[in-house]
Amino acid sequence: MMILPYALGICMVAITLSMLLCLYRLIIGPSIVDRLLALDTLFLNATCLVVVLGIFWSTTSFFEGALLVAMLGFVSTAALARYFTSGHVIN
Predict the structure, then answer these.
(1) pLDDT for 27 beyond 90
(2) Which one of 29, 45, 75, 81 has the fewest CB atoms closer than 10 angstroms to its CB?
């Protein structure tokens, strides 16, 4: 009996629950820093979910998508953090 599909199913449920909690913090967050951290964690969870789905469906094309999501998350978090600290993104 293979345990991998069950473990991946549990992982997908846990990541989805984590994404919902991050979305709640993104909407309700009392400060802008909480919202920025929730957005960064949401990007991380999305990357993890894409990787788990790639393993679950046994395809390698999802890993390229996960790299794109990770790069987009890093750039957007860096740009938003710079905007909130200095008021502009580019000097």
Answers:
(1) yes
(2) 75
